[in-house]
Design brief:
With 462 residues, this protein is an alpha+beta fold. The protein folds into 3 domains: 109 residues, Sandwich (Immunoglobulin-like), CATH 2.60.40; 176 residues, Cytochrome c-like domain (Cytochrome Bc1 Complex, Chain D, domain 2, Orthogonal Bundle), CATH 1.10.760.10; 148 residues, Cytochrome c-like domain (Cytochrome Bc1 Complex, Chain D, domain 2), CATH 1.10.760.10. It is built from 16 helices and 8 strands.
C-alpha cells in the first residue's frame, strides 16, 4: 500500500509528534470532497485530539508509533454526518509517540448503527402532544392548524424527521442538510441574506423561519406558496439544483444502505422500506413539532401583560392599532401572529422585481404577493422579507412607518382612504416600542430544547 503524507507537525516542539496520512490501496479511491484531518496535542492535557471532516463518512484508522516503523492501531474511527472528534489519552510509557490517521479501502466495513451514529434518548421525546396554551386549542388558532389527519405527528415519526432534517446525506455531495439553511439558533432560519447550496450557489430568496409552521391557514408553503402542503414542501429543496441537488431515487437508495435508517423506518412505519413518501411524512412531522409557546408574550397572555415593561406595553398597543395608526395585527393576527385566509402584498416595491405568487399562478393580481410567516421568534430570524433586504427589526419598522410603496396589489390594511399607500408615520418612541414588543415573541426554548437539536454522534465534540 502506498502512503501519501498530508501534513507533518513540528516534532521537535511538541511531546508527541503528529503524522497525518492517507493509506490508499491498489483499488481506486475517490474523494468527491477532500477530507480534512487533524491530529494535535491538546494544550495542557495528556491527550491527543483527532479531528476528521469527511463528507463521505468513511472509516479512518488512528495509529501510534515511537519509531515510525512499527505502528499500533489505536482505534478505527467511523465518521457520522461529516465530522468526528476523539480525545485519545497518551501512553506515558511512550513519551515520544507519533500518531497518524489514514484511509484504508479494505477497512470500510464499519457501519453506522442507531446506537453509534445517533444520540437518541431511550424514551422518545414528546413531539406528538406538546403542551399548548388554551388559546391554541380554540378558534381562530385551531382553524389555522395545517396538520392533516393522514400525517398526524408521532414521537417516532418526528424523531425520524429530526434525523433526516440534520442529515447531510440529503444533498448530493453530502455537505448540506435542511438545518444548513434552517438553523435553530436563528429560529430555524438563516442569518445570511441568501442560503448557500451544496455546490456554493445561492438561493433566490431568504430562508424562512420554521417556528410554528404548523399554524398557517392557507396551508401552502414557500414564499410564493408553490407547495400545496408541508409534505410537498419538504421534498422540493432536496431536488433543487442549487440547494441539495439530489433525485428522490438517489436519496432513497442512499438512506436504505444505512442500517440505522432501516431501523428507524421500521420503528416508525412498521417495515424497513425507505420511500420518498415516508421521508416526506417524517420531515413534515418534525417541522410541525417546532412549536413556540414559551415567550414573554405567552406569559403575558396569562397575567394581562403585567410582566411587560411600559415600553413593551406601548409597543403592543401600537401593534394592535390602539395607539397611532398601525395595522400590524391585520396581517399578523391572533396570538400566533399569522394571517387568516388572505394573501398579501406589503408594498416593498413597484415595479415588481420578484412577482412572488404571481409568478406561480400567472395572475397579475397576485404579482408581488408573498406568504406571511408567523412573527414568533422574529428577533432571531434576521434578515427580513423574502429577499432579506432588511438587516434589523428597526429597519423593518421604519419601512412600515415611512417606506411602503403604492402598487395595484397593495393589501387593504396598507391602503389609505383614497387607496394610496398607508405609511404609519410612527414617532421615534412608538417605533422603539414596537421593536421592544416584537422581541417579547422570542422563545429561546426553541433554540435550546434537545429534541430540536442535531442528533448525530460527532464523538467528543458533542
Amino acid at each position: 500500500m502506498k502512503t501519501k503524507l498530508i501534513d507533518i507537525s513540528k516534532a521537535t516542539v511538541v511531546t508527541a509528534a503528529l503524522l497525518l496520512a492517507i493509506n490508499v490501496s491498489s483499488a481506486a479511491v475517490s474523494f468527491p470532497q477532500s477530507p480534512s484531518l487533524e491530529v494535535r496535542p491538546a494544550t495542557g492535557t495528556n491527550v491527543v485530539t483527532v479531528k476528521i471532516s469527511d463528507a463521505n463518512d468513511y472509516v479512518w484508522i488512528l495509529q501510534r508509533t515511537s519509531d515510525l516503523t512499527s505502528w499500533t492501531e489505536v482505534e478505527a474511527l467511523k465518521v457520522h454526518n461529516g465530522n468526528f472528534q476523539r480525545a485519545v489519552p497518551r501512553d506515558a510509557s511512550v513519551p515520544n509517540a507519533f500518531f497518524r490517521v489514514y484511509f484504508d479501502a479494505s477497512r470500510q466495513n464499519v457501519f453506522s448503527t442507531t446506537e453509534s451514529a445517533l444520540l437518541l434518548p431511550g424514551t422518545s421525546f414528546n413531539y406528538a402532544a406538546p403542551a399548548l396554551p388554551a388559546n391554541f386549542l380554540a378558534q381562530p388558532i385551531l382553524g389555522q392548524d395545517n396538520m392533516p389527519l393522514t400525517n398526524l405527528t408521532t414521537n417516532l415519526g418526528a424523531t425520524l424527521g429530526r434525523v433526516l432534517f440534520y442529515d447531510k446525506r440529503l444533498s448530493t455531495n453530502q455537505t448540506v442538510s435542511c438545518s444548513s439553511c434552517h438553523q435553530r439558533e436563528h429560529g430555524f432560519s438563516d442569518s445570511r441574506q441568501f442560503s448557500v447550496g451544496f455546490n456554493g450557489g445561492l438561493t433566490g430568496r431568504n430562508s424562512m423561519g420554521l417556528s410554528n409552521a404548523r399554524w398557517y391557514q392557507r396551508r401552502h408553503f414557500f414564499w410564493d406558496e408553490r407547495a400545496n402542503t408541508l409534505e410537498d414542501q419538504v421534498l422540493l429543496p432536496i431536488q433543487n439544483s442549487v440547494e441539495m441537488g439530489m433525485t428522490l431515487t438517489a436519496l432513497t437508495n442512499r438512506l436504505a444502505a444505512e442500517p440505522f435508517y432501516t431501523n428507524l423506518f421500521t420503528k416508525t412505519f412498521g417495515t424497513p422500506a425507505v420511500s420518498s413518501e415516508r421521508i416526506s411524512r417524517a420531515l413534515a412531522q418534525f417541522v410541525r413539532s417546532i412549536v413556540s409557546v414559551r415567550s414573554k408574550y405567552d406569559v403575558g397572555v396569562t397575567n394581562n401583560f403585567a410582566n411587560f415593561t411600559p415600553q413593551e406595553s406601548l409597543g403592543r398597543q401600537v401593534f394592535l392599532g390602539q395607539v397611532g395608526n398601525a395595522t400590524c395585527a391585520a396581517c399578523h393576527g391572533t396570538d400566533n401572529f399569522v394571517p387568516g385566509p388572505a394573501l398579501n402584498n406589503n408594498g416593498l416595491e413597484f415595479p415588481f422585481v420578484d412577482k412572488g405568487v404571481g409568478a406561480i399562478t400567472g395572475l397579475a393580481t397576485d404579482d408581488g404577493k408573498f406568504k406571511v410567516p408567523s412573527l414568533r421568534n422574529i428577533e432571531l430570524t434576521a434578515p427580513y422579507m423574502h429577499d432579506g433586504r432588511f438587516a434589523t427589526l428597526e429597519q423593518v419598522v421604519e419601512f412600515y412607518s415611512s417606506g411602503v410603496v403604492g402598487n395595484p396589489n397593495l393589501s387593504p390594511p396598507l391602503r389609505g382612504p383614497n387607496g394610496q399607500a398607508l405609511r404609519l408615520n410612527l414617532t421615534t418612541a412608538q417605533k422603539a416600542a414596537l421593536v421592544a414588543f416584537l422581541k417579547t415573541l422570542t422563545d429561546l426554548s426553541v433554540t435550546t430544547d434537545e429534541k430540536f437539536s442535531d442528533p448525530f454522534n460527532y464523538g467528543d465534540s458533542n
